[in-house]
Amino acid sequence: MIELTVEDSVAEVVLNAPEKLNALSLEAVGELDAAYHEAAASGVRALVLRGEGRAFCAGRDIAGVDPATDDVHGYLGAVEGLMRTIAAFPAPTFAAVQGACLGVGLGLAIATDVVYVADSAKVGSPFAALGALLDSGGHALLYERLGAHRALDLIYTGELLTGAEAVAAGLFSRAVPADQVLVFTRERAARAASGPTQAFLASKRLIDKLRDDTLWRVIADETREQAELRDTADYREGFAAFQQKRPPMFTGE
């Protein structure tokens, strides 16, 4: 599912499972982490992350997950490790986001240095339909950029932002027409790859210090809360409804 190419000091990592909107299984999370380590070892000076097909990443692949035995800690622990790998990548990183950018997909974007989104992309928290919790750092991003009221509005309703709306709200770097976002991202990654890499990395370290540990603390809390939700009736119903392609019938329990 994960592909890596390197050309002219730029790595390109591709989520290549368009038939499932590039949703990530635990195995795919491990493959993606390994691709970043391989790219880092190759000495590239910039990296582009993208999704093949009509979506960037629709989140976790839950098609075959049994909520009664779901290893929430194992999966979200692997996602946190992946996000730390992305954030610590030793060169400027860029994401080209089109279509769905949800859940874990949103986490991949959060961990990336610069995110260019298609103006028609769909960004946010669809967890209201699953009986589950927004994870992968989503609470930190939405609260920091949108404030408490708008963040909870999006969480409660499950409504999604377009790429243009997400950029206007300050979530990401820039909105670009959908048919231009990949070319746009590749051009800027190539420009960064020919720039003063050590100066860029110094700025990256300073930004990371300003961000402090809030993101990682929230991710740990999200994992704990998600694990507790696994034992609720609504969590089991949300997963069953998704897998059976029907509306969920929540009871609040």
Automatic annotation (TrEMBL):
Domain of life the protein comes from: Bacteria
Keyword Lyase: yes
The EC number(s) this enzyme carries: 4.2.1.17
Ribonucleoprotein found in the keyword field: no
PANTHER family, A to Z: EG:BACN32G11.4 PROTEIN, ENOYL-COA HYDRATASE
Signal sequence bounds: none
UniProt KW keywords: Lyase
Record field: transmembrane: none
Name under which the protein is recorded: Enoyl-CoA hydratase echA8
Species this protein is from: Microbacterium terrae
Alphabetical list of Gene3D superfamilies matching this protein: 2-enoyl-CoA Hydratase, Chain A, domain 1 (3.90.226.10)
Main EC class the enzyme belongs to: lyase
GO function terms (MF aspect): enoyl-CoA hydratase activity
CDD domains: crotonase-like (cd06558)
